[in-house]
Design brief:
The structure is a single chain. The longest helix is centred in the N-terminal third of the chain and has 51 residues. The chain starts with a helix and ends in an 8-residue tail after the last strand. The protein is mostly helical and 556 residues long. The chain has a two-stranded antiparallel sheet with strand order 1-2. A two-stranded antiparallel ribbon has the order 3-4. It contains 22 helices and four strands. Helix 15 packs antiparallel against helix 16. A hairpin with a 2-residue loop joins strand 3 and strand 4.
Amino acid sequence: MDTQFLVSLSIILATFGLYIGIAIYNKAKETSDFYVAGRGVPPIFNGMAIGADWMSAASFIGMAGTIMLLGYDGLAYIMGWTGGYLLLTFLLAPQLRKYGRYTVPEFIGDRYNSHPARVIAALCTIIISFTYSIGQLSGSGVVIGRLFEIDARLGTMIGVVLIAFYAAFGGMKGITWTQVAQYSILIIAYLIPVIFMSLQITNNPAPWLSYGALVGQMGELDRELGISEYFAPFTNGTKWQFLALMFTLMCGTAGLPHVIVRFYTVSTMKAARWSGAWALLFIGLLYLSAPAYAAFSRFILMTKVAGQRITELPAWTTTWVDTGKLTVADNNNDGILQWSELIISNDIVVMATPEIANLGTFVIGLVAAGAMAAALSTAGGLMISISSSFAHDIYYRVMRPNATEKKRLSVARWSIVLATLFAGLIALNPPGAITQIVAWAFALATGTFFPALVLGVWWKRSNAQGVIAGLLVGLTVTLSYIFAAKYGGFTVLGIIDTGAGVFGAAAAIIANVVVSLATPAPSQKIQEEVMDLRYPEQMVYKDGEVWMNEDGNKSI
C-alpha cells in the first residue's frame, strides 16, 4: 500500500468513527428525537447542520466541476441554490415552524384537513428524496472508488452500508450532531485546496479576490484553442434555460422536504429565522469558493496537462482512468494530449484537483474525507425524510394511529435501511451526472411542494381539493417534461430537463387556484389558523383581529 492510500484511508476511517460515535451517543429514544431532534437544537448548530444537509455531493463534488465545464452558464446553480435560502428563510420556514408539526406532509395534511392530501404529499416526499439520494450515493461511490482504486459502483455499495447504519440508528437527533461535525470537516476540506491553489498560481491566499485575473488569461487560451470562451454567457444553453434552471433551483430549495424539516428542530420561530441566517453564512463559504476552485482547476489542466506527451502524463491520470470517470485518448495519433482529447467528468474535478495541483498526500486525504462528509450528511437527511414520510405520515397518521412508540421507531428504522439499499442499486448505474440528478429533485420539489406550501401559508382560500389537484398536476407535468426533454429531445425555448420545475410550478399554481375557487372554502377555523401563521409567536389571529397570547388583550 502506498503512503497516499494509507493517509486517505486513515483520515476517512477516523471521520467515519466520529460519525458513528456521535450517532450512538445521540441515539434517538423517542419519536420526537427521531423526527425533530427533540426541538432543542441551538440556531447556530442548526445552521451548520443545514449547511451540511444542503452542501451535498452535488455541491462539494459536482459544483466546481459543473462551473469548470459550463463556465458562465454554471453560475445558475450557485445563484439558484443560494437565492432559494432567502425564499425559505423569509417566506416559509418561520411559519412552518410555528405550525409545530414533524414533517411537510403532516403540515399539508393538517393545514388542509385531508388524509388524501397527506398521503400524496408523503409520496411526493419519497419520490423527491429518493431521486436526490441517488445523486448522493453516486457521489460516495466516486470518492470510495478513487480511494480504493476500485470501480465506483462497488464504492457506492460501501457508502450504502454506512449510511443505512448511522441514519437508522441515530435518527434526526443523531444526524443533526453528525452533520455539525460533517460541516466542519467538509468546509475545511474544501477551503484548504483552493487557498493553496491560489497561493501556488497567484501568490495570493484569498482565492475569492485572485481568480478574476485568471479568468482573463483563460479567455486568451480559449481563443488560441478555438473553443468557447470560459466566461461567455449562454454558450451551453439558451438564456431561457439559464433563467428556468435558476428558478427551479431557487423554488426547489424552498420546497425540499429534507431541508424544511431542519427548521422543525429548533424551539421557536425566531430560532428558525436565525437558523436560516446562519445557514446562509455557512453555505456562502463554499459557494463563493466554487467559482475560484473551477477557475484554478481549469487553468492547471489547460497549462500543465493538456499539451503534454501521452507517455509523460502525471500518475494521477492512470488512477482516475481506472474509476471510469476520466478518458484520455490520442485521437489524432500525434502523441500529444490535446485539450479536446481530455474528457474529464465534472463529478471528479474537486476530488482530482489536489492531485492535479500536487498539493500533497494529507490534502488529498482531507478532500476525500470532506467529499464523503458531504455525500453522507445529505444522504442521511434524505433517508430521514423518506422514513418519516412513510413511518409517520402514512403508517402512523393514516394506517396505524394506535401504533406504539416502539413499533413506530422500528418501522422508521427499517424503512431507512430498505430505501437506502434500493437507492444504492439505482446509483450503481446513475441516469445522469450528480448535479443533473439533483436538479431533477429540485424540479420535482418546485412543481409540487413550493406551490402547495406558499399557497397553504399565504392564501387562506386554498383548500384540500385545490392542493391535491396542484400536487398531482405539478408532479405529472414536471416528470413528463423531464422524460420528454432527456429522452425525447423535446424542449420549449431551449429549456432542458433540469429546468422542468418552471412548467410544473406554473401548472400546479393554476390547478390549485382554479380548483380551490371552484369548490367550497376551508372552514373558518382553518382560515384563522392560516392567518395566525403570519404573525409572531406572541400573537394569534382571532375573529379577524390580532390578539396577544399572554393575557388575551387585543394587540395594537
